[in-house]
Amino acid sequence: MTISLLDMLSFLCFICCWSGYTAFARRKAKTTACIARSLHQHRIHWMYQLMTREMRVGEAALLANLERNIAFFASTTLLVLAGVLTLFAQVEKLESVIASVPFSALNHPLVQVKLGLLAGIFVLAFFQFTWSMRQYGFLNVMIGAAPVDKSGTDENLRGYARQMAIVQDQAAHTYNYGLRSYYFSMAALCWFFHPLLFIGASLFIVYTLYRREFKSRAVIAITAGQAHLEAEQQSRK
């Protein structure tokens, strides 16, 4: 099987975009206001408030709603993966469809490699979603074990609340990684048509993710909300 230099460069660009953005976002979130950083502070505040309540039905409902979203993506991922694996038996039909697209650069030996890349992406996404679901299950156990601290001043229980927030934060990060797999699978689809389109789509996905996680209006509102919560906490002391 021969692989053109352009195909190799496009695949390398894809890997660099995905792994590079993941490393960049993780490092930048430590010093810059973004969705991940601000929501972590909201989760800590949420867990602090949870410790002061005897009835935690509202929290159970909110967590169940989060888990339903993840379960939807996990089951959908299996369906998508089954469709991708089915295409391995229909390579000739797939090639005829691609060849009908204007300006497509069809490389017959690489079609199965490209299908393998898509399958690998959705396998990774499935692992991420199921691990996120398990971590939310761990969080439910911790909430069930949490005693009530109506005063909200017990330092041991506040430390326990922070640990619950960390578990929830890890579950949310894993869910985010699964969603990121879906984003980059859209770029991988472009490889079927042309390597240059694959490169352009990979860069566009990185730009889209950056704008949404660091520059969107949602980030501004969440960060402002965090400031209001902190001010409210200070006023209670």
TrEMBL record:
Keywords: Membrane, Transmembrane, Transmembrane helix. InterPro entries: DUF599. It comes from the Bacteria. The chain crosses the membrane at residues 70-89, 110-131, 182-210. PANTHER family: OS09G0494600 PROTEIN, PTHR31881. This is DUF599 domain-containing protein. The lineage of its organism: Bacteria, Pseudomonadati, Pseudomonadota, Gammaproteobacteria, Alteromonadales.
